[in-house]
Amino acid sequence: MVAPSLRARVRAGMIDEIKAVARRHLATDGANLSLRAVARDMGMVSSAIYRYFPSRDDLLTALILDAYEALGDAVEAADASTDRADLRGRWHAACRAARSWALAHPAEYALLYGSPVPGYAAPDDTVAPAQRPPVTLVGILRDGVAAGLLAPSGEELPEPLRSDVAELAALLAVDLPPALLARGMAGWTQLFGLISFELFGRINRTLPHRDEYFDHQTGLMADLIGLPAA
Amino acid sequence: MVAPSLRARVRAGMIDEIKAVARRHLATDGANLSLRAVARDMGMVSSAIYRYFPSRDDLLTALILDAYEALGDAVEAADASTDRADLRGRWHAACRAARSWALAHPAEYALLYGSPVPGYAAPDDTVAPAQRPPVTLVGILRDGVAAGLLAPSGEELPEPLRSDVAELAALLAVDLPPALLARGMAGWTQLFGLISFELFGRINRTLPHRDEYFDHQTGLMADLIGLPAA
DNA sequence: TTTCGTCAAGAGCACTGCTCTCGGTTTTGA
DNA sequence: TCAAAACCGAGAGCAGTGCTCTTGACGAAA
User: Fold this and answer.
1) What is the arithmetic mean of pLDDT over A179-186?
2) Domains of chain B, with CATH numbers?
3) Which residue has the higher pLDDT, B62 or A126?
4) Burial class (CB in 10 A: 0-12, 13-18, 19+), A114
5) What is the DSSP secondary structure assignment for residue A30, as one 8-state letter?
6) pLDDT class of A3 with cuts at 50, 70, 90
């Protein structure tokens, strides 16, 4: 373990600064960020950026990866800082954390969950961080079943579907009855829809009390799952 | 009512052809469609397009309006062609119609429900057509209550939220108890999330039986709403 | 028939992502 | 220690973009 050379350190600093400037541009200009513009902001020439990122898409990928990690951190931290036995409280905390992060970083959220950039294909590095929020959510269900706080209803899925969802459980590394996992996925799907609707402004020019609406909607899904209050 | 002049007719034809070519480009290149490319495809020069659409955003707006109407037509037709008393069947039919349209026109769906184009602000003409799918869905609930097939649970929303949702009911012109409308909105939100996840490919490289998964997920929301089978 | 509105074409501007070359600096290894 | 290799920023240049403006031709209306 040798200390990184001076050159490597300034290089890492440059990469961080480029990403920071790019994030700033992202917030104002949306997904079509201009390499030349960030280069200008850094007092550089556009071609110099290519020393650090081989293409614009690679810069976007780096930003996407960072954003996934930040969102995953926020959701996991919110869940972790809630009483383990309070399943419903954990659910609400995780959902609120995702929403708060999205409201604080709308452009980055759009990058993660908006329509995919046309030519751009997300590399495989992104799938693991992308799964952290849903894994956290279904992890609450897993803990609930393990602790006996969440009784599996005994409901069974019809067959082509049951094994599909069972495979999904294996992929997410959660040991859950398929029917319950399906309900958890419904909650995750609705959470994404809620945030997207609020952020992309398609819904509710009315609905001024958005916090209350959000909590109620996520509470409905907690009901559907059967999460008990503390 | 005079017959439109020849000139007006060829002009209308040109507008239609431009939109058709643009839709084709949209399908392959995504949201960043090039005016010059569609002009090339039509054997024209880019500046000629501006005789018909004052800017690229106006072309996009026209495509968006058409897409909203097409999606609205599909959802409403599916609902209308189902036995009025079969609330659950109508719900499933409307949801399936939305999904089918989205799968058949992924680029246009992304235009409607993906991340908003940065500089672009949707004009007010779009809000009415955009509301047709959710209005159709909550219309099923309204019919159910009116026909006595869907019993309001008597559940009441806490106050800041209750009047918000009541206002939303007035805006959507559906006479529904707020608590029930909130559940309907949850269903609409989840439907959007389901389609987006499937279309934008973030979810389930596994889950090969997507039709069954979709039906089960929308069925869960029908359960949450309390829609009875036929 | 003449005038007026419409049309396609072309040149041009400012911008984009990206490539390549050219000097200058830093790190590396013999 | 010193030359070779790697790295870095600047600049020119290419192909493409949205958009504006001007020019000349055509058809419909007065």
Assistant:
1) 97
2) 1-53 (1.10.10), 71-225 (1.10.357.10)
3) B62
4) buried
5) T
6) low
Contacts of B29 in chain A (CB under 8 A): 118-119
First-to-last C-alpha distance (Å) of chain A: 48
Quick count: other Cβ atoms within 10 Å of Cβ B153? 11
Instruction: Tell whether B221 lies on the interface with A, counting CB pairs under 8 A.
Output: yes
The predicted structure's pLDDT at residue A202:
63
Residue B36's nearest nucleotide, by CA–C1', is D17
Strand D CB-contacts below 7 Å:
A 7, 11, 14, 43-48, 51-52; B 5-7, 33-37, 46-47, 50, 54-57
Residues of chain B contacting residue A224, judged by C-beta atoms under 8 Å apart: 220, 223-224
Which nucleotide lies closest to B34 by the C1' atom and the CA atom?
A: D17
Say yes or no to pLDDT of B199 above 50: yes
- Provide, rounded to the nearest whole percent, the portion of chain A with pLDDT above 70: 95
Task: Check: CB of residue B143 under 8 Å from CB of residue B87.
Answer: yes
Residue in A88, A100, A114, A74 with CA at minimum distance from that of residue A187: A88
A41 touches strand C (CB under 7 A): no
**Is the minimum CB–CB distance between B179 and chain A shorter than 8 Å?**
no
B103 touches chain A (CB under 8 A): no
Burial of B41 (0-12, 13-18, 19+ CB in 10 A): middle
Nucleotides of C under 7 A from a protein CB: 6-12, 15-21, 26-28
